[in-house]
């Protein structure tokens, strides 16, 4: 180291400092040098150590390379192992995943199980709740059922009470003798629009008719009847309320059931049924007969009445409904039926089936006699509507007139007039028994539901209302006790004896009724040959006794009993006979007089005291039945007691002639009905005293085919099936015999008079 040019005094210190600095620097450098050397030394040592390791690694490597073959194998093994390990790892992973999933599923399952448990719990709770509710409901239902039962019970009791009330009401009406009125509404016919009905309401006893009044407002009119049957009522229902009347006939009451109503309103349907008859469709006639026969078989009857009544009646003995139906068929054939604009099968005459029943009370020996008229009236019609002309027009006018006469009678009865104009028409004469004779009378009033029949419907119902107010007096049993009967027999015998001597004027007057002679002279002649006029002299009865309605001044009087009888007869009255047409003017004149246009009902001729009645009767029937086979049996034998019962019936058809009305002796006023019928008031004071009795089948009028109810179709009785005897079919009845015998009888009768 070199020191250069230092200044002598001042620089010493500086030199010193520099020296110190240099020395320090040197020292520092030295220290650094030493540090570096130590570092170097340390690096050298580390390098040596690394070299040593490298050597060792080389040695290892060499050793490893020596055992390389073995290592490769190990490597493959290891690779395989690694692969397996991988697979296993993968599998494990999958398993893990699966496990995870399983665990998850398990968890889900557990959760679901839990939920299911909860649901089950809820369900069981709900079930319990439901059970509770169910039991509550059951309890409530039970209670409701009980309440319903109580209500139903109450309702049925109420209905029973109503029914009893109705029956009581009917009984009261019976006691008062009111005519029962049942109203029946026909259904709309095929092809008719059913939305134009005039009926606004129907219940058991009420019917309300709706119509537009003049000022355009709705007008309603209510009508009350004993019973109202709607359009759906069956024939059976219709008959059910009629049944008690049938028993009444056998109990000795007179019964009349008649059908009234506008043309086409269903009268024939009710009384007979439709054209095709079967057990369901048969009408009141058939059902009543069935019941009658059924009841007569249940009771012990014993009678022999050979009575005969209405003009040209044929008496036919019958033993079963089937036989009566055959007879009714004949009557039906004789009935004039024709097609009009209002009804294609319109009845152009009234039809009446009369059944007489006689019996004996075995305990008392009293005789009971009942009589039942089953009447199907011809319908009232407006001739402008029915568009009839010629003969049909005349018929319609006659029908309307006779119905008007019926209206007059009803009006008089309703007003309790002293005089009732029964004599104004044959119809009212025929029904006199039933309209004034303390009979039990039922009227089926019929109505069509169509709007264009409204005015007829209203007048029909008003008429029916008035009919319902008619009090006939309490119905009486036609019963004669034994003593009275014996006395009457004695009187009859005495009268007969006196008549033989020509000494009994009243009897002669009675017997001389021209109608009697006209009615069935040949019948009488046949049966009782000893009398020159054709009456059994020993058996004549005063008209009071034989039930001639004209003889009875007192309409309250009951028909007198026939003598004790032992047989049961049913007779049929045919329409007016040809013989009447054949009568000469003289004959007609002779047969006119008081009886000329009268209908005689129940004109029974007692034959019990005669010998050989059966033979004579057979003779009689042979004359009137156009069948070689004679109705063989007149007797109904009751097995139990060997007793007998008897029935006796007629079927009548009447053509009403205007002269019938001209002979009127009535003071009656014109009924409301009349105004509906295009019928002028019956002229008074026009006498003539002659009735032009018409043939039943006017020219050009077709007869009905008759209803076909052969035995196989004979309806069973409403109470019980009746096994009628075998019947032959096609039994027909001859028209009443006309001829000289008849005329001579008539003349003889006149001359005797
Ligand atoms: N209740 C009913 N059910 C079904 N059809 C009925 C009923 N009533 C009446 N008819 C039918 O109405 C039509 C007229 O009836 P029906 O001939 O009995 O009348 P009607 O009053 O006797 O007439 P007319 O006075 O002209 O003889 C017939 O075709 C009949 O079959």
Automatic annotation (TrEMBL):
Compositional bias ranges of the Polar residues kind: 700-713, 724-735
InterPro entries documented for this protein: Kinesin-like_fam, Kinesin_motor_dom, Kinesin_motor_dom_sf, P-loop_NTPase
Residue stretches in coiled coil: 12-60, 477-504
Cellular component terms (Gene Ontology): microtubule
Xref: Pfam families: Kinesin
GO molecular function, one term: microtubule motor activity
Keyword ATP-binding applies: yes
SMART domains per the UniProt record, alphabetical: KISc
Positions with a binding annotation for ATP: 261-268
GO process annotations (BP): microtubule-based movement
Keywords (A to Z) from UniProt: ATP-binding, Coiled coil, Microtubule, Motor protein, Nucleotide-binding
Region (Disordered): 574-593, 684-753
Domain Kinesin motor: 178-470
Residues making up the signal peptide according to the UniProt record: none
Protein family: Belongs to the TRAFAC class myosin-kinesin ATPase superfamily. Kinesin family. KIN-14 subfamily.
Name of protein: Kinesin motor domain-containing protein
Protein species of origin: Vanilla planifolia (Vanilla)
Lineage: Eukaryota, Viridiplantae, Streptophyta, Embryophyta, Tracheophyta
């Amino acid at each position: 180291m070199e020191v250069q040019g230092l200044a002598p005094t001042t620089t010493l210190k500086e030199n010193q400092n520099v020296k110190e600095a240099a020395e320090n620097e040197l020292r520092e450098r030295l220290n650094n040098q030493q540090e570096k050397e130590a570092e170097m030394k340390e690096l050298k040592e580390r390098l040596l150590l690394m070299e040593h390791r490298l050597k060792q690694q080389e040695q290892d490597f060499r050793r490893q390379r020596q055992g390389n073959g073995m290592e490769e194998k190990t490597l493959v093994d290891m690779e395989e192992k690694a692969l397996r390990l991988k697979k296993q790892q993968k599998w494990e992973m999958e398993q893990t995943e699966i496990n995870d999933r399983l665990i998850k599923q398990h968890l889900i399952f557990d959760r679901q199980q839990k939920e299911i448990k909860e649901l089950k719990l809820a369900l069981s709770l709900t079930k319990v709740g439901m059970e509770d509710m169910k039991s509550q409901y059951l309890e409530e239902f039970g209670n409701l059922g009980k309440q319903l039962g109580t209500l139903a019970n109450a309702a049925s009791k109420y209905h029973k009470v109503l029914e009893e009330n109705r029956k009581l009401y009917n009984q009261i009406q019976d006691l008062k003798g009111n005519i029962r009125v049942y109203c029946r509404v026909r259904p709309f016919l095929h092809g008719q629009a059913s939305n134009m009905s005039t009926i606004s309401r129907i219940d058991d006893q009420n019917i309300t008719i709706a119509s537009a009044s003049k000022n355009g407002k709705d007008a309603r009119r209510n009508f009350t009847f004993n019973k109202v049957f709607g359009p759906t009522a069956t024939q059976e229902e219709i008959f059910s309320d009629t049944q008690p009347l049938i028993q009444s006939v056998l109990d000795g009451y007179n019964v009349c059931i008649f059908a009234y109503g506008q043309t086409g309103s269903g009268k024939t349907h009710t009384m007979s049924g439709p054209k095709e008859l079967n057990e369901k469709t048969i009408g009141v006639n058939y059902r009543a007969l069935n019941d009658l026969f059924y009841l007569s078989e249940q009771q012990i009857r014993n009678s022999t009445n050979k009575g005969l009544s209405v003009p040209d009646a044929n008496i036919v003995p019958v033993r079963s409904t089937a036989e009566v139906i055959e007879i009714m068929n004949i009557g039906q054939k004789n009935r004039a039926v024709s097609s009009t604009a209002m009804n294609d099968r319109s009845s152009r005459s009234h039809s009446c089936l009369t059944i007489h029943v006689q019996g004996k009370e075995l305990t008392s020996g009293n005789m009971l006699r009942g009589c039942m008229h089953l009447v199907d009236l011809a319908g009232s019609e407006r001739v402008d509507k029915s568009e009839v002309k010629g003969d049909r027009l005349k018929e319609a006018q006659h029908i309307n007139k006779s119905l008007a006469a019926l209206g007059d009678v009803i009006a008089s009865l309703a007003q309790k007039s002293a005089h009732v104009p029964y004599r104004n028409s044959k119809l009212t004469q025929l029904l006199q028994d039933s309209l004034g004779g303390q009979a039990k009378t039922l009227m089926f009033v019929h109505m069509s539901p169509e709007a264009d029949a409204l005015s007829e419907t209203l007048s029909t119902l008003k008429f029916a209302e008035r009919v319902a107010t008619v009090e006939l007096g309490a119905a009486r049993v036609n019963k004669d006790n034994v003593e009275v009967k014996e006395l009457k027999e004695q009187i009859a015998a005495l009268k007969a004896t006196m008549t033989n001597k020509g000494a009994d004027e009243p009897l002669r007057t009675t017997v001389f009724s021209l109608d009697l002679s006209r009615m069935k002279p040949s019948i009488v002649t046949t049966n009782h040959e000893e009398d020159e006029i054709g009456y059994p002299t020993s058996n004549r009865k005063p008209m009071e006794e034989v039930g001639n309605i004209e003889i009875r001044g007192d309409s309250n009087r009951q028909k007198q009993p026939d003598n004790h009888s032992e047989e049961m007869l049913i007779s049929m009255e045919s329409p007016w006979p040809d013989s009447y047409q054949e009568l000469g003017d003289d004959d007609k004149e002779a047969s006119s007089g008081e009886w000329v246009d009268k209908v005689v009902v129940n004109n029974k001729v007692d034959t019990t005291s005669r010998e050989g009645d059966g033979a004579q009767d057979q003779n009689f029937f042979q004359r009137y039945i156009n069948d070689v086979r004679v109705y063989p049996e007149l007797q109904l034998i009751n097995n139990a007691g060997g007793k007998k019962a008897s029935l006796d019936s007629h079927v009548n058809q009447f053509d009403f002639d205007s002269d019938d009305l001209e002979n009127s002796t009535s003071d009656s006023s014109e009924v409301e009905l009349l105004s509906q019928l295009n019928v002028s008031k019956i002229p008074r004071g026009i006498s003539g005293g002659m009735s032009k009795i018409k043939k039943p089948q006017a020219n050009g009028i077709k007869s009905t085919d008759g209803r076909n109810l052969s035995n196989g179709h004979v309806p069973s009785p409403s109470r019980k099936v009746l096994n009628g005897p075998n019947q032959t079919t096609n039994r027909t009845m001859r028209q009443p015999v006309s001829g000289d015998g008849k005329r001579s009888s008539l003349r003889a009768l006149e001359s005797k008079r």
